[in-house]
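Possible race condition, two jobs.
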Amino acid sequence: MAEKVEQKDVVTSEAIVETFTKEDVKEVAETHEEHVEPTEEDWKTLREVGDNVPLSAFLVILIEFCERFTYYGITGPFQNYIQQPAPPSYPAEQPGAIGKGQQTATALTTFLQFWAYITPVLAAIVSDQYLGKYRTILLSSFIYVIGLLILVCTSIPSAIEAGAAFPGLIVSIILIGLGTGGIKANVSPLVAEQYQSKAPFVRTLKNGTRVIVTPQATYQQMFNMFYWGINVGGLSAIATTTMEKNIGFWSAYLLPLCMFIVGIVVVISGRKRYVEAPPRGSIILEASKVIKLWFKTRNFDDCKPSALTKTNPDLAAVATWDDVFVDELRRALKACVVFCWFPIYWLCYQQITNNLISQAATMLTGNVPNDIIQNIDPFALIIIIPIMDRIVYPLLRRFGFPMRPIIRISIGFLVAAASMAYTAGIQSLIYKTPPHFDHPGDEVNWISAAFQIPSYVLIALSEIFASITGLEYAYKKAPQSMKAIVMSLFLLSNCFASILAFALVSVTEDPKLTWMYTGIGVSAFICSILIWVFHGKGDKVDVQEDAIARDESGMEEYYKKTGINIDKEKQDNVNEKEA
C-alpha cells in the first residue's frame, strides 16, 4: 500500500560490501550520508557493490521456502505414484500406486508444470489490478491447502484400493496448480519490492575506499538468496521419497501439508511489515492503449502525454498514463522478448523432474529410491549459490566485469545444453549395457545411477545463470504497477516448455531417448548463441534502463492521475494495523 513504503520497520539502506572476505564487510561505514550520484569517472574506477537486504525480504523468502518445501515434497514422488503399480506391502523395493506407466506419468507431471506456470498470469492480473500481492498470496494459499487435503486423503491404502487415487490426483493437480501459480506470480516481486532504492550512489567505507552501491548488485544478491531458499525447501523430496518407499504415499504427502500450514502462519503474521505497491484497477487497459497507440506511431516517445499535448490534445487530456509509464512499458516489452527464448531452457530443466527419474529406474541405485537422486540439483544449488554470490560475482565486479543479465542468461543456456549432451551420452551407455540393453523397460541394466550426478550439477549451475537472472530481469524491467504481470509472463515461458514436452511424449520411450536428449541439448546450444547475438547490446544500457523510476512526488501525481485514493490506502493500512 502507499504508506507502507514509508514504514520504519524496514532496514535502512546501509552499505554492505559484496566481497569474499569478512574484513571487507567490517569496513562498511555506518553513516547516513547523502546519496551522491556516481560520475562517469566513478563508474570507470570504483567497484560495484550491493546494499543491505531489508529484514522484511527475509520474511517473504521464508514464505517461499515453505511453499517450495510443499511443492517439491509432493511432486518428488509423483512419477512413481503414477507410473508404478501398488506394491503388496511396505517397505517396498519399488513404490507405486496407480500403475499407469511412464508415458502417462510423464504426461501428468508435465501437465502440472504447464498448469502451475499458466495460472500465474491469472493471479498476476488479480494481484496488480484488484487485490494486491499480499491478499492474492493469502487467497492462493487456502486453495493450495484444499488440494493438499484431497491428495493426502486419496493416497491412503484403502483409497488406492478403491480406485480413488487417480481422480483424487487430477483434482489435486488442478487446485495445487492454481495455488502455486498465485503464490509464484507474487512472492518474488514482493521480495524485491522490500528494497526501495532505485538509483546507484557512491558511498565511502570506513577505510576511505569509495564504492558504488547499485540496485543491480542488490537485486542480484536478493534473488540469489530467494533462489537459495527455494532449493533448501526443495530438499523436502529427500524426506518424502524416503517415506514413500518405507511407509507409503499418504505419509509423503502429509509432511508437505503440515509445512504449508506453517507457511500460511508466516504469511499472516508478517502482514504489517510488507512494503507493497497498491493495485491498479486499469493497468491492463492502460498498457493496451499505449501499445495500440504505438502501432499507429511506431515510436514510444510519441505515446507520452507530453508529446500528445502537441499532436493529439484531446487524447492527452484523458490519458491515465504518464511519460515514465511509457518508458517503463518499453523497457518491459524488451524484457518479454528475451523471455521468448526460455521455453527451450525450461525444457532442459524439466527432464530432471520426470525422464531422468525414469532413467534412474533402469540403473543400479542400491537401496536408494530412484526418485531421490533428483535432489542432487537442490544440493548443488545450496553449495554453489553462496560461492557465486559471495566470491565469484564480487570478484568479477572488482575486476570491472559485473556480468549483466544477458551474458548470464546466455551462459545458463550453454550450461543447460552441456547437461543434456551429457545425459544423452549416459542414455547411450545404458543402451549398450546388459542384460536388457536398449529395451530395459521397468528392468535394471548393470550401470550405476551415480553416472547421473553431472547431469544434475550442470542443470543446477545453469539455473544460477539463467533462472535466477530471469527472475531478477523480470522484476527490474517491469513497471512498478505491473511487477506481478511481467513476472508471470516470465513464468509463462515454463508453460510453453511443457507444451514442447507434451510434443515429445511419443519419444519418451526406449530406444528413442538418446535422440530426444540430443535434440533438446542442440536446441539450447543454438539459443545460447542467438540470445547473445540479438540481445547482448542490452547489457550496455542495463543500468540506465533500471534507473527509470518515479520519485515520491511523481508517484503521488501518478496515483492522482490514475484515480488511486492515496488517503484511503493510508487509512486502510491504519485499520489493518489496528486490527
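Job #2 (started ~2 s after job #1):
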Amino acid sequence: MLPEEMDNSMASKNIITASPSSIPKLKGIGITFYEKMLEHKSKIAHTDAETGRTETYESILQKTIRTSLAMSSRGIKPNDVITICSNTTIESFVCLYASFFTGAISANIDPRLPLSDMVYLMKLAKPKMIFTIPETIRLIEQVIEQSELNIQIVVFGQTSKYLKYSDFLLPSPDENKFVPYEPNNIKDTAVIVFSSGSTGLAKGICLSHNALLGLSYRIAFAPLMSAPTLLTFANLYWISAVTLTPNAIINGVNRITCSVFDPIKIWDLIKKYKIGGLFLNAFHALEMCKYGRPKEADTSTLYSVIFGGCTTTKEQNLHIRKCLPEAIILNGYGQTETAGCVLMFDPTNQEHLELLERYPNSVGKPFPGYYYKVVNPDTEEILGPNQEGELRVKSDFLMNGFYNMDDSNEWDTDGFFKTGDIGYYNEDHCFFIVDRIKQLLKYQMWHISPVKLETVLLAHPAVHNCVVIGIPHQLDGDHAMGVVVLKDSAVGKVTEEDLQRYVDDQVGDYQKLRAGVKFVRELPVTATNKISRLQTKRIVLQERV
C-alpha cells in the first residue's frame, strides 16, 4: 500500500502521521533549478566566507550551463555517474547543479577519506568524471590506479596534466539555447549519497528528484529552515549538504560556503554575514557552545539553528539554546536513506514551539507525507506511546534503494524503512531517539564500521577473538574500543597499548580506537552463539562507572 492510500484507520494501529498538505506538481531538479535561478537572478546565490567573493543566481546559472555543456562535450550523458571530491566551495556546488542540468548522477566523496575507502566507493559507483582539488590529485591518481577505472580528472585550480575546471567556464555558442535535462519520471535517481552500513560495506543510496524536491515543497516552514542567508560547513559527501540545496535554490537563499569549521570564528561569520539560518552537525553545535557565548557575539539576525546527526542530551540542548537565545534551536532527525530530515518541530507553529520548550530533547513531530511506527524488532509488534522500539518510516520521499546492491532487508513487509534506531513517541506525538540497533558507530559526524576495525584486529597474530564497541563521549558521540580475547600463547607478551597502536597505524584518523583496547577472558554471546555487542558494551560501561 502506497503512503497516499493510507487513511485515518491506520491511527488505530499506532501508525503516526501529520495532516496532509498539497504541493505543486514536481518537475526534474534540473529544470526546477534553471527556472528558480532565472527567477532569483539578481539575488546573491553564494558567498565565499574565506574571500568574501559573491556570485548572483544569474552568474551561477551561466556557469552551470557552461559546465553542463563542457561535461556533455566530453562524453557525459544522462545517467552517467560523476564524482565531486572537494571541500566546500562555490565551484563544487556549480558542478552539482550541472549534474542535474545534464542528467548525470553525482556520487560525491570527501577528500579526507582514507585511500581504501575511496577505492571501494569508486569501484562501486564507477564514475566517468571526477572533479577535485589540487591537494587531492595524487590521492585520486592512486584511487584510479587501484580501482582500474578510466576516469577523466577535472581540477579546481592549476594543472598541466589534467583538465582544468576554468576551461569548463569558457563561453559556448550553445549556451543561449541550452535546455536542462528532464527525467522521464521524477522518481528516477538524481544523486547517489554514500553511507556506511552495519556490515561494514559502504552503500550508495539512490535519491530521486521527487525525494530531494519533496521536502522543500511539502514542509510549510521549509523557507525558514535556511532563512535569507544560510551557513553550513558540510561538503557534498554529506547528506545535509545535498538535501539543503533544493531548499536554498527554490527560495533564493544566499548560501555561505566555508570549508573549515572553527568553533571560535563561527561567531564572527554569523556577525559579518548576518546569518539567518545555521545548519550544523551536533558535534559542531556542541563545540561552538563549548565555552559559552562570547561577549562580542552578535546573533541578532539568527532566526533558526538546526543540528542533528546524533543523539544529544536534554542538558546539551538547553546549553545550546542558552548560548543562542535569539534563535529557534531545532534538533531534527533523519538519515541518508530517508533523504534527510523526517522529524522536526515547526518553528512557525505556536503549539510546536510550546512542545519544544516542554520536551527539549525531542527530535520533533511528523512531517506531512510520512508515516511512522515504532516496532518491537524481535516480534514485529507495533508499539504504542512511550514504548521503546525501532523507528520505521514510510513515504514516497525515501530512497529508491542501494546502487548496484540489494536493499530488500531494509524494508519490512508493509513497506516501512527500518531506520535501525531505537526511539519512542509520547501522547503529543513528539518523537525521541534513545539508541541504535545498527552496529555502526559515529565519531563526530564520521561513520565507523566496527566490522572493519575487527578485521584489522583479527589480523594480529596475538588476537583470538574481538568485538569493537562504541564508548559514549559527551562531544564526539562514539569513541571506538576494541574488546579482545588474546590467544593463550600471547598472554603477557602483548599489551593493550600495542594493539591500539597496531590498529591506529592502519586506519583513518576518525577510525582510531580512541577508547583504547580492553583485554577480557571471554566475550558474551547470544542464544545463537553470536558475539553480543550490546552485552559487551553494557559490561564495559558498568566496569567504567
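Residues 282 and 308 are 5 Å apart (CA to CA).
Logs attached separately.
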